[in-house]
Amino acid sequence: MIQSKRKWWVLVTVSLTVFMAMLDITIVNVALPDIQQAFSSNFSNLQWVLNAYTLVYAAMLLPVSKLGDIIGRKKVFLLGLGIFMIGSLTSGLANSDTWLNIFRGFQGIGGAAMMSLSLTIVTSSFPEKQRGLALGIWSSAVGLAIAGGPLIGGALVDAFGWRSIFLVNIPVAIVAILLGMFVIKESETNRNGKIDIWGLIFSTAMIFTMILAFIQKSVNGDYAWTDWHILSLLGLSLILLIAFIVTERKVEQPMIELSIFKNWTFNGANIAAFVLGAGLYGGFTYLTILMQNYMGYSAFDTGAKMLLISGFTIVLGPIAGIISGKIGNRWLVSGALFIGAIGIFVMRYMIKAPFEWSYLMPGFILLGISNALVNPPITTAAMSSVDKEYVGMASGILNVFRQLGISFGVVLLGIKLTEGYNDSLNTNIMKVANIPAEFRNQMLDVFHKAGAFGGSQLFDSKQVEVFKDVPAFDEMKTIVFNAFNAGMQNVTLLIGIFLLIGTFASAILIKNKKKTQNEN
């Protein structure tokens, strides 16, 4: 009975920590204006408040998984919790944007340990019969944190200021550490295990340079993919990947056992995780911009609206874990991604300027159902497709694919948004009559510099104050809103394509595990 209760307390502990780790990727978005005001930061430094955490977090997912296999998952998990807590405290007390960025990077180390090892701890704590339910609850914590970040962040910033989004982690981390010390059992360790130093260096540097290339493209919208800033990082990442593969084939105890990629189910789960990150989670950024900058919702109200997506995970996440054991992961993953694709195409069909909540709500409901149903079977498929000795590796790889997908999606969707916005802006402003060419060119320059993120706030700024008496000024606002809508048409189309790719890839690659006689 005690052992039976212990595993559920383990699940509570790791779900709590996973929620914190994923929340800190999204929660900061709504606090950026306050942080910028507090430190008088420029846009580049401000972006690194987000990117420092994401960059280190992604790069450390594989190393901490391997370290857990060698010295014990409980030790590394609790150490990660301690690092995360210290990083949160120092971030909350930072007296400059530079120090905040440094502490956010340190915090990312802890977040990676918490995220990656929590999955292996849950997998090893539950028997196969209950694993689907447990992983469903774990996945619900992930989905809820990603979608609920704006709401929680908005509430904390409004009530207590931007520092509270970091300091709130302290009491939660203390509770999680105390629980973890008592309820989590230490895993079996490989006493003869050795750290694959070159594999560690190559894999960490490969992920670091790839994510950094995406960040450079995101921060510098005028850079083409062929710009040397981007191309050199992507080229270096490819060289490091080749070096990593060559190294892993030769060492006795590799960082990653490459043979696990011969498993089609494992590959299908990782592709599904990537497209889910690129499409749905990457798209959250631009849905947030739409609601805040063009529909006039506050940060808190935007978060509340996003709960329509995340709220389904509370109920459907655990149920999805149970269902996956009945019908198999294959059809649940592909079916859930297909529901998400339908949701995004419904939204694409309905959305238009001036924007209204009723245009988004049906799509949000379908995306919420998709998000709730898809995470548990992806996780179950990946973890159950490898031998027990490789679950740590599998966890790290799955999380890397999800995070790479998010980073890639944010960049690519941002490019498509900007392309649609600029093309529509250029075409429609030239059609406006009764306006001097000089003013038209000046306003076009202002709108381009503000970019698609400018929104309605742009028309209340000093930048356009001098144009308010110009004929057709009100028509200009309509043109800008229609331009953003053109960009969102591109964004939603690309998200739908991502989700459809995942639908077909998972249906083809993921194989349902045959039940043994003992499982029936």
TrEMBL record:
Keywords per UniProt: Cell membrane, Membrane, Transmembrane, Transmembrane helix, Transport
Main location: membrane
One Pfam family this sequence matches: MFS_1
Subcellular location: Cell membrane
Occurrences of domain Major facilitator superfamily (MFS) profile (ranges): 10-514
Transmembrane annotation, as ranges: 7-28, 48-64, 76-94, 106-126, 133-152, 164-184, 196-216, 228-247, 268-291, 303-324, 331-351, 357-378, 390-415, 491-510
Domain of life: Bacteria
Topology class, membrane: Multi-pass membrane protein
Molecular-function GO term, any one: transmembrane transporter activity
GO CC annotation terms, alphabetical: plasma membrane
Family matches, as PANTHER family: BLR6921 PROTEIN, MAJOR FACILITATOR SUPERFAMILY MULTIDRUG TRANSPORTER MFSC
Protein name (database record): MFS transporter
Lineage: Bacteria, Bacillati, Bacillota, Bacilli, Bacillales
